[in-house]
Structure formats: structure tokens, C-alpha cells
Write a structure and sequence with these properties.
The protein has 12 helices and 11 strands. It has helices spanning 35-49, 73-76, 86-92, 95-104, 121-128, 155-159, 164-173, 179-185, 197-209, 213-226, 231-246, 249-259, and strands at residues 3-4, 11-16, 19-24, 56-61, 66-68, 110-114, 117-119, 131-135, 139-141, 176-178, 190-192. A 7-stranded mixed β-sheet has the order 1-2-3-4-6-8-11, with helices on both faces. Strands 5-7-9-10 form a 4-stranded mixed β-sheet.
Length: 269
Amino acid sequence: MAEPTGSEGPLLSTLADGVLRLTINRPDRRNAMSWEVIEGLERAMVAARDDPAVRVVILAGSGDKAFCSGADLEAMHGDGPEGPGFLETHESRGRLASLFEAMWGLGKPTVARVQGWAMAGGFGLALACDLVVASDRARFGAPEINVGLWPFMITVPLIRSMAPKAALELMLTGRVVEADEGQRLGFVTRVVPHGELDAAVDDLSATLAAKSPAVMRLGRQSFYAVADMAAPEALAHLHAMLTLTNQTEDAAEGITAFLEKRPPQWRGR
């Protein structure tokens, strides 16, 4: 039974068996992101980072139609005499980058549960997660070019999730991608029938939650660190991390459990 950790509002959270589920709760707006949603997600990621009870984070959207349709342009529009000024609006747009950085610095695996539309910033939000499990009804796209904009802020999660030229083609054309093609391009981890989505997400999350929290943190941090390094620097970093990881109690326990033919008992250190 999930333990409620947040009240009804634009962002819901439940925690059960080491798995924190964060749900954007704006189905009437196709779960479009407001400033409140972005800030709430970032706060939740920071809190999850420091909470030993959280081992995995699932990111979801409420309802059956959309994971997240992107930014709520009406709510975020900064022009006009009663709205925020240009500079404040410019600085606010950096909040999505802060959210992505909080997700990548979480130290714990993240899974996007995509049941429908994941568009524009919602596409980037899904791909900022480590893994993406999608319903066969899921659709992905960066359609900003069609309204005279460009998906600047989601460029990094896109090119970290597929070949850069594949990402560029999606940004240049604004076309919508079905889940099967997303899997072929490399940014969808698994596609399942719509009715099996929750079971697939829960199964994957349970698998991840059963791993060593200490080794998961160190290994995942190394993955993102070397993504932006040249090969010589990356190899040096990984060499050091190999030695560091082998000094953890969980590494010793894992080897001992393997030799003794029993399940390991992780301590997260």
C-alpha cells in the first residue's frame, strides 16, 4: 500500500517499498508544466536524494491521455502589464534546467511512465529520466518549430538519449514519434500494451530498488559524469571509481553473498 507523501494538488507523491512516485496532476491541461509543477518536482528530487527510504523515483502524469504536454504557455506567458518582466521571465525559464540537473544528481534511478502524449518540455522531462517505459499508445515529439520556437532546454536530454542527428531531425521537423519508433531510436527502454504499463513500471522499479543503493549511486553518477568527458579523462575517472566502489561495504557484501550462494543484504554504504 502506497504511503501518501503529498496532498491533492498539481503534483502528487506516494512512497512504497522504496519507490517514490511523482505524478503531475493537471489532466485538464494534459499535465502541462506550470512554474509550480517544475519547482515542486525539483524540491521533490532534492528531498528524495537525501532520503534513504527512497531508492527509485517514478515520474508519471495523471489520467490516460498525457504524460506531460510540455510547458503551460498560457500560465507561463510573461508579457503584458500585469505579468512578470522580461528578465524575471528569462530567469524563470532556467528552472527546467535546474530540474534536469536535480534529476541527474539524484543518485537514484528514475523511470518515466509514459501512457500518452509526451511533447515539447514533456518529451525532455521523460528523457531526463534514466529509463522510459511507454504504453503502445504513447507519442513523443518536439513540435516547437511549428509555432516558431525551438526546443532549446530539452536539447541535452534528447542528445543524451539517442543519436544527436536523430534528435536534430525530430527538432527540425517537429514530427510525432510513436513508442515503437522511440524504442528503435533508443530513447524508449520498453514498450508494452497499454493495459500492462503499470505492471511493467512496477516490475522494473522493484528490480532497481533491490540493488545496492551505494553502488547504484556511485555507478549512476559516473555514467553521467563521463557522458561529457573526452575518452582519456573518462577512463581515468572510471578507474578511480572502480577502486572506490570496491571499498564499499555493499561491494564486500555482494561478493560474500555470491560466494555463499545467498541473497545479499545491502546496507547502502
